[in-house]
Design brief:
Number of strands: 11
CATH class of the largest domain: Alpha Beta
Largest sheet: 6 strands, mixed
Number of domains: 2
Structural class: alpha/beta
CATH superfamily of the largest domain: ATPase, nucleotide binding domain
Strand content: 25-35%
Distance between the termini: 21 Å
Number of helices: 7
Shape: globular
Helix content: 25-40%
Strand order of the largest sheet: 6-9-8-7-10-11
Order of helices and strands: EEEHEHEEHEEEHHEHEH
CATH architecture of the largest domain: 2-Layer Sandwich
Radius of gyration: 19 Å
């Protein structure tokens, strides 16, 4: 274990995803419960980590980093941290850490190529990185589960439905109609975004990540690459960029 190892920590709403890297290679990833900083530090030490980066959507990032900083050189991902790409985003202070991370990952992995990243998680985000390494913009909307839940919770009688009710056809029952609207609507939304990008970058790469990545990848009409660890890979890219 001679090579320096990096620890990327993605603190979500209900869990903490961690990955150890040697250079750009992911050696191992593990998921911890929120609040288990001591366990993360112990795991990082056992993996030979020398530096770390933390991204959090929960707040309290400084406290988290201070705890980790006692063992590793630790960075907190903020809008002030240098990233390996240019951005046209007009409100960088509101640019979500997950989106920032995936854009950093594709700017390093797909340099010189136009890339669209679809992140299918709690929210559905579509983002475009040009071949010149410039983030041009994207879209944010509710994710699959949020759409199903909102129909159930904000109406009087519509049932809670899952993706298993989606047939790819016009619905012939209430369950099928809800699934057709939610899943079919998301697929159409993504395709609409891709058609806009194709008007000026027809040979773009399509990358899908997030918890519902496989579900969407199987149903999208365009070839795509599923990258489940893209957020961790992007955090590692940002850490490496700031260490140079």
């Amino acid at each position: 274990m001679n090579a320096a190892r990096n620890l990327a920590v993605d603190v979500g709403n209900s869990s903490v995803k961690c990955g150890v890297f040697e250079g750009r290679v992911l050696v191992k990833s593990v998921t911890f419960q929120v609040g288990c900083v001591a366990d993360i530090v112990s795991w990082g030490e056992s993996m030979g980590v020398s530096r770390a980066i933390v991204s959090t959507v929960r707040g309290g990032g400084k406290t988290f980093c201070d705890s980790m900083g006692k063992r590793f050189s630790t960075l907190l991902l903020t809008s002030q941290l240098r990233v390996p790409f240019e951005s046209r985003y007009q409100t960088p202070e509101t640019f979500g850490s997950d989106r920032l991370s995936v854009m950093a990952a594709v700017s390093s992995e797909y340099a010189g190529q136009d890339v669209v990243v679809v992140d299918a998680g709690t929210a559905l985000t579509c983002d475009y990185m040009s071949r010149y390494g410039v983030y041009e913009g994207g879209s944010i909307s509710p994710g699959i589960s949020m759409r199903f839940r909102s129909l159930h919770e904000q109406t009087w009688s519509l049932p809670l439905v899952g993706v298993e009710s989606y047939s790819g056809k016009v619905g012939r029952s209430t369950l099928e109609c809800i699934a057709a609207g939610v899943v079919g609507g998301i697929l159409s939304e993504i395709e609409g975004f891709l058609q806009k990008i194709a008007t000026f970058a027809n040979d773009f790469r399509l990358v899908v990540t997030g918890g519902d990545a496989e579900l969407l990848a199987l149903r999208l009409e365009r070839p795509c690459e599923v990258r489940r660890e893209l957020v961790l890979e992007g955090l590692n890219a940002i850490l490496q960029y700031n260490a140079e």
